[in-house]
Hints:
Layout: E1 3-4, H1 6-16, E2 20-24, H2 28-40, E3 45-50, H3 59-71, E4 77-84, H4 87-95, E5 100-103, H5 110-126, E6 130-135, H6 158-168, E7 172-175, H7 192-201, E8 206-208, H8 216-224, E9 227-232, H9 234-249, H10 257-279
Parallel strand pairs: 1-4, 2-3, 2-9, 3-4, 4-5, 5-6, 6-7, 7-8, 8-9
Helix pairs in contact: 2-3, 2-10, 6-7, 9-10
Amino acid sequence: MTLVNLNSVLIPAQSGKYAVGAFNVVNLEMVNSIVQAAEAKHAPVVVQYAEDDDSRMKIEQIGYYATEVAKHAGVPVVVHLDHGHSFKACMRAIRAGYSSVMFDGSELPYEENLATSKEVVRIAHEVGVSVEVELGRMIRSGGKPLENPDITELMTDPKLAHEFSQETGADAIAVSFGTVHGVYKTVPHLNFDRLKALREAIKQPLVVHGGSGLKPEEYQEMAADGITKINFYSDMANRVAKHIVKDLNGIGDNIYIQDWTDRQLQYVADDLEEKIEVFGSANKAASL
């Protein structure tokens, strides 16, 4: 088991009707937590870093570290650039050794999204890197609770998605059918009929963003209806931070940085082990 691209883990998930967990990191320690959880559950996994976090730690720094961890992992690990909003960011990730990149042109005019997606795919495929693209828009909360997240008018159009998927030649397509980025305050409005229509229209593996805070049965229905990659971060990050703060408040004055780090490593791993089970990818590593 080692560093692989999306095709290695999503195509089997597509035929097996389960989803692979794609978990964002914001520091190096989280890379270890994600791989620890995946190894404990014998599951393929996607470790991903978003371009928006480049100001926190450079795309290259995460890439160098995560790919080295992946090469020595006991399960298949994809190191993926999440939400690369620019052509430049995708190229930086490819040069840094990422095995997969996402070009997110979902907020661009359709023709510009299509043209840039095609160019990223062309270059990435020349060096064996997989590409995820996105059509349809999603609300971003900036970490704040979301109220009334009904985004019907922003959902991916199946007819347009068919054309987009064929024209780009991308390896995975991120689609919108009611999820949003961030932490939900009210019940989300998921349109599974739209998802089924998208599954019929697109041959490539489908991806859902904004996978936080849903019910286990909703994740499982997504996988049954064609979602092969579930992006999950906000809910875990919020819950883990609260656990750590509660623990540290009980320590008193004799407290050090490693007290946070050690707890983060274990709490993240524990949280993601649970999600891997729910997504259905536990014990799937051996068959890849």
